[in-house]
Input
Amino acid sequence: MTPIREAVILMAGEGSRLRGSDKTFLKPFVPVRGRPLISYTLDSLIHAGIRTVNFVVGYESERMIEQVKQLVPSGLNASFIENCDWQKQNGISLLAAEGHLSEVFLLTMSDHIFDAAVVDRLLDSFDSDFLNVAVDRKLHSIFDLEDAMKVRMRGNRITDIGKNLRDYDAIDIGLFVCPLEIFDYLERAKSRSGTNDCSLANGVRLMAGDDKVRAIDIGDGWWQDVDTPRMLQHAEKNLRVPATS
Output
């Protein structure tokens, strides 16, 4: 298996659900146990052997880039890609990275925290012929299950995805190993939308329709989406990774 050395982190949005009316801080840098949220993501990627990270920025991009640069550790190459349509859905942010990648890559979000073992498990188990989605079957442990991205599975294949699925088997945790083919499906989803917009889930759903999406169960691994003040409190309470490094 070819090791993955490059990642994309989506961080173009405004983060208004967490920030509210407070415009003084940017969501990826909100402190979690005294460290910026994005630092935990960077730690996990470095631990997994990632060497280059492409940050897709949009909202207040200059301030975002300046603050990220202060946190990128030595040994990690940082590249910044601007999404001028950052008000649109996250599929448009990933499409902004098209042409910047030449092989299978890791994809995640700037507001998700994972055990390092979760990232390792995905990178040890992916199949480069598929879109690989890390999923959590521990439905009883999901904080704010109603807002979570749900997936329906048949064996290890994902057959449908969406926040409003009534019947589902697991939760998409926002961590993927993507073939370059993902861009073709996002372009297709965008063109079908009628609004020149698409979400990442729209692209995943189209790939699933062609039996090209594979689920990788994180087992007892821990993760948390940090999208609201309540989610932030939950993350601080349950964080397993060290508070300092």
